[in-house]
Predict the structure.
Amino acid sequence: MAERSTAPRVILHIGVQKTASTAIQNFMGQNKAALAPYLTVFTPWRGTPSQLLGRKAIDYTFEPGSRTETAFVDAIGDMRAVLDQQSGPCLISHENLVGAAPGSMGETGFYPYIDRIVALLDTHLAPFRPHYVYYSREMAGWKRSVHNQIVKTDGYAGTWDEYRAHTDHITRWDDFDQRLRAAAGADRVTRLRLEDEPDTSRPGQLLLQAAGVPASVLSTLRPLDSRRNESLNAGSLEFMRRVNAEGFAPGVRYRLGLLVAACQPLFSPSVDATRD
């Protein structure tokens, strides 16, 4: 590939998990046409190179080795080929580009492979030089939300108290932020606070501002009609946790999870199971 004298700007929105990434992606997706004069957006819709990029990144962190690294590098190459066809700024969004969340699939660290991920992305996206953007949120609330998510989707069987004990070494975002900046360079990292987002019906405005979209455009974007990927209520969460503890096959567990998420009122303590 012939290198360009000036490669278009590339922003990598790397999550992290449970910082409204799905809502942000849906919001950008439904406003793609309005954003097009300023930014080309790539979100992880099924079968797209951006979806594969995030999937192979998290596979690599689950099982680091030559096989998973090669698969991740191939996915980076596919994404770079798409970027080669663009002439203006691009934003790629996938929350799994940081790796597995604490507690997911046995992960005990706080995104311990971020330095390796950045090194591979920088090397194989060249000549593009990505700028890394992520959201943080208040730590206690974030952990509670991550626990809910990994029980719902990742087969985690621990209680909240057990999860809190397993992650008590994770107390501040500074550790992750410092490692990310050490890997990418401080000038190529932007940390955003989810609590600073001005409007939950238009999520991701801080991200889009960082990507160069004018404020006058952001105010005209169509808001989301509803939110997705909401946390399970307490009864539904406890049911799924017990399902996970039984060791059902992933496919069975996935279908049960969909059913539980769709029927959460059935698991509410207010439901009178004795009524005819």
In short: The chain has twelve helices and five strands.
